[in-house]
């Protein structure tokens, strides 16, 4: 249903360091970079997530979050650990969260700009 998503960040270079670490364990890499935008796609191909520099006190959308699929629990753990090491604020640690769904395994960190990210290993349908 979605072609791509965009998030605002304060500093593209800092965002690149964070998102390279966060998305690497999921097999996602930068596919485009210039002074106005940074794009990521599976294996560094295409643009499915775009980051744009914005100014102001509020960068992240209130109540908005982006959820990423992981191939397994190990990818969730690796991406979460990389995100926290790169400056993410933990919201929900990596692990099972039966309060969300019986088979849910995932996590939620905030990126350094306050964008809410989620990684899910089991699709809940």
Automatic annotation (TrEMBL):
GO terms for molecular function: lyase activity. This is Lactoylglutathione lyase. The keyword Lyase applies. The keyword Lyase applies. Residues 1-122 form the VOC domain. Gene3D superfamilies: 2,3-Dihydroxybiphenyl 1,2-Dioxygenase, domain 1 (3.10.180.10). PANTHER family: GLYOXALASE FAMILY PROTEIN (AFU_ORTHOLOGUE AFUA_5G14830) (PTHR35006). It holds the Pfam family Glyoxalase. Keywords: Lyase.
């Amino acid at each position: 249903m979605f072609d791509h998503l965009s998030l605002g960040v304060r500093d593209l270079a800092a965002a690149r360091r964070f998102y390279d670490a966060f998305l690497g364990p999921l097999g996602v890499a930068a596919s485009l970079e210039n002074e106005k935008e940074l794009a990521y796609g599976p294996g560094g191909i295409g643009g499915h997530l775009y980051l744009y520099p914005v100014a102001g006190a509020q960068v992240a959308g209130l109540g908005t979050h982006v959820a990423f699929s992981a191939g397994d629990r190990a990818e969730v753990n690796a991406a979460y650990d990389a995100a926290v090491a790169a400056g993410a604020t933990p919201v929900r640690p990596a692990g099972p969260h039966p309060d969300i769904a019986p088979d849910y395994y995932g996590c939620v960190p905030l990126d350094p700009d306050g964008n809410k990210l989620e990684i899910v290993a089991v699709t809940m349908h």
